[in-house]
Structures are given as structure tokens and as C-alpha cells.
Specification:
Keywords: Glycoprotein, Golgi apparatus, Membrane, Signal-anchor, Transferase, Transmembrane, Transmembrane helix. By secondary structure, the chain is mainly alpha-helical. It has a domain of about 325 residues. It is built from 16 helices and four strands. It has a four-stranded parallel β-sheet, sandwiched between helices. Helix 3 links the parallel strand 1 and strand 2. The longest helix is centred in the C-terminal third of the chain and has 22 residues. The structure holds 3'-phosphate-adenosine-5'-phosphate sulfate. 3'-phosphate-adenosine-5'-phosphate sulfate binds next to helix 3.
């Protein structure tokens, strides 16, 4: 582990109780030393219940995570599942695994949801499974002061991941022999509105529920807002006010931030403006800024995690996890933001993927910039220290929990609880737990290794225990 910088320690553990915390840890460490043997192998921070007492701010536990596709979102989901599970939080779960995707999110898709006033429903704490974002409906399920966040990935890396995963799902990808062939002439394969073709272009933009510029909409059948009966209603929110702000104009699509002071005025949708793509994009981004409290960047995953922990007032241990949903044998070349080290062919592919997915590229550049602005505020050195600690912690957990200390080929994963769902043309890697773990460590390692579908089922079973119908007592009359 890296050295504990005082600033970082203060931030994560809270200034007031620092002395107490140190005292407690030293005592625990001393007792463990005395006990020796097996306790050396025990995972150190397995007592999260100790932590909140030391935090200077209350941890945020009302969360909306927009799980974008092929962007590292399953790794984020994993930590949300674990955190919610440990703290007994209530998830807004889909009946199956997604909320009617690719249709826009509808509150009625949430298991156990009752419209307001329609019963004694307990509030939900976390909404985090795949959806096409639809703020108005999300606010039917989640409190407006929830923490809204998401993740984006370089469209070049995302395209590569999506091509192999959705090869048989997207008609454009299916028709194309390779990603290079597709990107060399995408219009030969791609038909907007054709089955699964939202996976083939601007998938992030689509998942964020944003409307597409008029020139990109399908000529006939499409999934895009203007013709979709479930069209997204992008409300104008005061810049930086977050989702708690009042939705000002539910019938409009996108509005410039500069107009938001004009509460209640009917502002025409972009379709009625003759605006160029670039203003269209800018307005979409401004709207997202007003809704999302944080957008993580897959290429800076660990940096994003540190910022997430900071924003949520969670401990670093709450955001340490393993990578999920990685496809085997993937070159990491296109995952890098910089072109250095890429072959000329890869560079061309990268450039073409970004150009084809121009809305996603704009989204990515925008949120990459915001992330770095946030890092500046947080402090680069402080961040580096926290990232180093997080990585050391992850490595220690992997060594302790996993056979080989790393992800495994699914063919070796015989325990179905840990075998990730296999889809697409590449194998999806998973984890095999070491044997001989203590019961406590076994539990924590299982949480870390459980793939998203199995974890969702586990949470579902916990939240909706099967109702046992008790046998009627025949000795008593049924009615007086
Ligand atoms: N921590 C971290 N950092 C960077 N990249 C990561 C991370 N975790 C997962 N991944 C990569 O994200 C891809 C899977 O994304 P998702 O989990 O969003 O996919 S899915 O839509 O839920 O199927 C998948 O990409 P490919 O392997 O390129 O397909 C994962 O490798």
C-alpha cells in the first residue's frame, strides 16, 4: 500500500475522529499480531461497519447509475451491488435484467413499483441496471436528490467491444465481415432503426436517452425520439442544479443552458431550430451536465473511482473491485486515448470509429475534460496517492480471493454462481475463488467475484423472498 497522505486520510476517514481511528486500528493490528497465524491471511478492511463512524460526512445511499453499454459499467455495477447488499439498501430492479431496453426507461418496469399514492411502497435506494435513460420516468422511482452518475468510454474502444459482443445482435455488424470493413464503409451496412443497429453507432448517446440530430434519424421506422411514442422528454434544469431542480419544460427536447433562467417558458425543440450539429451536441451535453453529478471515464477508471468515493463520502474500500465483463484475447490498443504505440492500421480504425460515432466522441471529450477539471480540484498528487492505494488493495484482494490472482477463462469456471453470462464472439472472463478461505473472507470474495446477472438474482431473491403459504389451521373455525 502507498503511504497515507494526511490530506487523503482526512478526506476519507474524517478529521474529527482521525485520532480515534488510528487508535482503534493500532489496537486491532496489535490484537491480530498477537493472534497471529490465520489472521494474517484475513482481508484487512472487512469491517465496513466500523467506517461510517469515522466519516465526516454522511455517505450518500440514494443512487442512480446509468449503466451504459460496453464501457466498464459492469465493474461499477458490481461495487454498487456489493455496497447495497452489505448495507441492506433497496434496489429498483428490472423484472429480468434490463428495463425494457432499447425502449426508453419506464417506471412501470421496476419490480414492485407502485405509482405514487398507490400503496405503502418503501423508497428505492439504488437504480443501476441497463436502461435507456429517461429522466422523467426515473424521477417516478428515485428521489430527485439522488446522486446521478454514469460512465463513458472512448468510442474507438467501445466500438471494438460492441462489435465482438453484438456481432449477431446488430444487423449492421452481422452483415460486416470485420470492424475494419464496417468502419471503412459503414453506410453499406448500417440502417438507422434496423434491428439492433443502435449498438453500431453512437451507443452512449443512445443510452443517455438523447435525441438524435434530424439528419441522423431514420427515414422510416426508427427508435429515435421524434417518432418514438416513448420519446424522451429532456427537461431544462438550471446548470449545475442537478436532478433535484424542477423540470421546467417537459415537452421540449434540448435547450441551451442560457435559457434556463426563463422558467416556464415554452422553448422550441431543436427540431424547430435550424441549428447545426454542433449546437445540437452542445445543448445535449449541457443538459447532461445539469442532470448528472459525475460521469466516470473508463480509460481513467481508478481515478474515477476515487472521485466517486469522494463524492459519495464512501471509503476507498467501498469502490475497490474486480474488472467484470472483460472479453478474452482483446488487444488493449484501442482502449488507449492516445494514439502512441498503435499501428497505422489501428490508428486509422480509431480515427474512423471516432468519426462514425461523432456524438459519442463529443460526449467522451466533454466528460473526459470534466473529469480532469475535477481531478485538478481534488488535487493531482492526492489523487495519485489514492489511486495507488486502491490498486494495491485490489491486487491484495485478487491475490487473496482468486485462483491465480486474476480472471479466468470461463471454461474453467465450474461453479455456476461465478460463471459470467457468455455472449458474443469472444469469451467473457470470470473468477474462480481460492479454497480454504475463512467464512467471512469467503463471503466478501464471493461478493467481489459474482457476475452481474447472478448478483441481480441474489438481490432479487433477498428483496422478494418467496411467499410461503401457511397451511390453514383446521382446528379453528374459519369464520365466527
Ligand atoms: N475497470 C475497467 N476499466 C476499463 N475497462 C473495463 C473495466 N471493467 C470492464 N471494462 C471493459 O468494459 C467492457 C465491458 O463493458 P460493460 O460492462 O459496460 O458491458 S455490458 O454492456 O454490460 O455488456 C469490456 O471491454 P472489452 O473487454 O473490450 O469488451 C471490459 O473489458
Amino acid at each position: 500500500m502507498g503511504p497515507l497522505s494526511p490530506a487523503r486520510t482526512l478526506r476519507l476517514w474524517g478529521p474529527r475522529s482521525l485520532g480515534v481511528a488510528l487508535g482503534v486500528f493500532m489496537t486491532i493490528g496489535f490484537v491480530l499480531q498477537l493472534l497471529g497465524g490465520p489472521f494474517h491471511r484475513r482481508l484487512q478492511p472487512l469491517a465496513p461497519s466500523l467506517r461510517p463512524a469515522f466519516l465526516s460526512c454522511p455517505p450518500r445511499q440514494r443512487l442512480v447509475f446509468l449503466k451504459t453499454h460496453k464501457s466498464g459499467s459492469s465493474s461499477v455495477l458490481s461495487l454498487l451491488h456489493r455496497y447495497g447488499d452489505r448495507h441492506g439498501l433497496r434496489f429498483a430492479l428490472p423484472a429480468r435484467y434490463q428495463f425494457g431496453y432499447p425502449r426508453l426507461f419506464q417506471a412501470s418496469r421496476v419490480k414492485g413499483y407502485r405509482p405514487q399514492g398507490g400503496g405503502t411502497q418503501l423508497p428505492f435506494d439504488i437504480l443501476c441496471h441497463h436502461m435507456r435513460f429517461n429522466l422523467k420516468e426515473v424521477l417516478q422511482v428515485m428521489p430527485s436528490d439522488s446522486f446521478f452518475f454514469s460512465i463513458v468510454r472512448d468510442p474507438a474502444a467501445l466500438a471494438r467491444s460492441a462489435f465482438s459482443y453484438y456481432k449477431s445482435t446488430s444487423s449492421a455488424f452481422r452483415k460486416s465481415p470485420s470492424l475494419a470493413a464496417f468502419l471503412a464503409n459503414p453506410r453499406a451496412f448500417y440502417r438507422p432503426g434496423a434491428r439492433g443497429d443502435h449498438y453500431a453507432r453512437n451507443l452512449l448517446w443512445f443510452d443517455f436517452g438523447l435525441p438524435f440530430p434530424p439528419e441522423m434519424r431514420a427515414k422510416s421506422r426508427n427508435l429515435h425520439p421524434s417518432r418514438d411514442p416513448n420519446a424522451p422528454e429532456l427537461q431544462v434544469l438550471p446548470s449545475g442544479a442537478g436532478p433535484q431542480a424542477q423540470a421546467l419544460n417537459p415537452n421540449a427536447l434540448i435547450h441551451p443552458v442560457s435559457t434556463v433562467a426563463d422558467h416556464g417558458s415554452q422553448i422550441p425543440s431543436p427540431a424547430s431550430f435550424h441549428m447545426g450539429s454542433s449546437s445540437f451536441i452542445q445543448w445535449g451535453l449541457a443538459w447532461l451536465d445539469s442532470v448528472f453529478d459525475l460521469v466516470m471515464v473508463a480509460e481513467y477508471f481508478d481515478e474515477s473511482l476515487v472521485l466517486l468515493a469522494d463524492a459519495l463520502c464512501w471509503g476507498l474500500d467501498d469502490v475497490v473491485g474486480f474488472m467484470h465483463n472483460a472479453q478474452a484475447g482483446r488487444e488493449q490498443g484501442l482502449s488507449t486515448v492516445s494514439n502512441s504505440g498503435l499501428t497505422a492500421e489501428d490508428q486509422q480504425l480509431t480515427a474512423r470509429a471516432r468519426a462514425w460515432n461523432n456524438l459519442d466522441w463529443a460526449l467522451y471529450v466533454h466528460f473526459n475534460r470534466s473529469l480532469w477539471a475535477r481531478i485538478e480540484k481534488y488535487g493531482q498528487r492526492r489523487l495519485q496517492t489514492a489511486v495507488a492505494e486502491l490498486r494495491a488493495r485490489r491486487q491484495a484482494l485478487a491475490k487473496h480471493c482468486l485462483v491465480g490472482g486474476e480472471a479466468s477463462d470461463p471454461k474453467y469456471i465450474t461453479d455456476r454462481r461465478f460463471r459470467p453470462f457468455q455472449f458474443g464472439s469472444a469469451k467473457v472472463l470470470g473468477y474462480i475463488l481460492r479454497s480454504g478461505l475463512s467464512p467471512q473472507d469467503q463471503e466478501e470474495c464471493e461478493r467481489l467475484a459474482t457476475p452481474e446477472l447472478q448478483y441481480k438474482d441474489k438481490l432479487d431473491a433477498k428483496q422478494f423472498p418467496p411467499t410461503v403459504s401457511l397451511p390453514l389451521k383446521t382446528s379453528r373455525p374459519l369464520s365466527p
